[in-house]
Amino acid sequence: MKFTFAIAAAIFTGLVSALPAKEVESRQVPYIPCSGIYGSAQCCATDVLGLVNLDCGQPPETPTDADTFSAICSAIGQRARCCALPVLDQGVLCNTPAGVQP
Asked: Where are the transmembrane segments (predicted)?
């Protein structure tokens, strides 16, 4: 009896281990568009020589990936940016977020 149980357990374990592993779902790895000194995600209207961006604000929704970040800002007529210092609706020292087309 114990022997047949051990055989059945071994077969079941072999079948389970033969199943493909689940892929990591995208929601498990959060999208972080801005990091380091350029840590503030912003939607900005006008870029002035890469130093100052005008009419900036936080995205109205939390972006889940680069395309979503770009689409969120585009929907309000602005561009996705990462700024070092957002002050009074102005972004100082801004660059393009990871994965977003410039």
From this structure: none
